[in-house]
């Protein structure tokens, strides 16, 4: 008789635990809030320039709640033997287009150190090859203030070139 009571008590405890999970699970999923969407752009790839050189790029940029941006870009253009790291400070995303700008840091060309660099990309779906595009990188004079959100909004569309290898992703939160 004692064994039966232990089994009944154990069964009751197990039933309470199962009921707690069954009833708690739906409440847990309804109380979770979705993470806020963040405008962002990232990509990497190669493209063959008209002179036959292969330009390489890699970047990631994320817009922060205050409108500024953070991220980095690494650009290599053998046409003029440029390798540089760009500290991204502004990002403008509209639909599938992203304009990215920042300050050139750590480059093999000291005349471009601390210059502002800006470029633009389009995410035209997967796969990115022959579909996604990137502009040239444009440089401003050195020692200008870091690009602000307004800076990324002041340009017309840049001429684009399709990438030959890689992918670009732009998220505009829509």
Summarize the structure.
By secondary structure, the protein is α+β, with helices and mostly antiparallel strands. The chain has helices at 2-31, 149-152; strands spanning 40-48, 54-63, 69-77, 82-94, 97-105, 115-122, 133-134, 138-142, 161-162, 165-171.
Strand and helix map with partners:
Layout lengths: L1 H30 L8 E9 L5 E10 L5 E9 L4 E13 L2 E9 L9 E8 L10 E2 L3 E5 L6 H4 L8 E2 L2 E7 L3
Antiparallel strand pairs: 1-2, 1-10, 2-3, 3-4, 4-5, 5-6, 6-7, 6-8, 7-9
User: How do the SSEs run, as a string of H and E?
Assistant: HEEEEEEEEHEE
Spans of at least 5 consecutive residues with low confidence: 4-30
Number of helices: 2
Number of domain modules: 2
Q: Share of helix among residues?
A: 10-25%
Strand content: 35-45%
How confident overall, as mean pLDDT?
81
The beta-strand count equals 10
What summary fits the major beta sheet? Answer: 10 strands, antiparallel
Q: N-to-C terminal Cα separation, in Å?
A: 66 Å
What structural category characterises the helix and strand content?
alpha+beta
**What overall geometry do the principal axes of the alpha carbons give?**
globular
Radius of gyration: 26 Å
Question: What features would you describe in this structure?
Answer:
The protein is α+β, with helices and mostly antiparallel strands and 174 residues long. It folds into 2 domains: 1-32; 40-171. The protein is built from 2 helices and 10 strands. The radius of gyration is 26 Å and the shape is globular.
């Amino acid at each position: 008789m004692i064994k039966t009571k232990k089994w009944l008590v154990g069964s009751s405890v197990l039933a309470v635990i199962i009921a707690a999970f069954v009833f708690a699970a739906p409440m847990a999923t309804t109380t979770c809030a979705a993470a806020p969407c963040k405008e962002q752009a990232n990509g990497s790839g190669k493209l063959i320039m008209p002179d036959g050189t292969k330009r390489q790029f890699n970047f990631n940029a994320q817009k922060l709640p205050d409108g500024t941006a953070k991220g980095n870009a690494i650009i290599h253009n053998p046409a003029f033997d440029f390798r540089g790291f760009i500290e991204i400070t502004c990002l403008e995303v509209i639909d599938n287009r992203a304009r990215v700008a920042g300050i050139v840091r750590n480059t093999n060309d000291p005349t471009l150190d601390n210059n502002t660099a800006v470029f633009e990309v389009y995410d035209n779906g997967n796969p990115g090859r022959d579909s996604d595009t990137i502009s040239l990188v444009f440089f401003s004079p050195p020692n200008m203030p870091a690009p602000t959100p307004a800076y990324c909004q002041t340009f017309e569309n840049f001429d684009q070139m399709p990438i030959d290898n890689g992918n670009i992703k732009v998220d505009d939160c829509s």
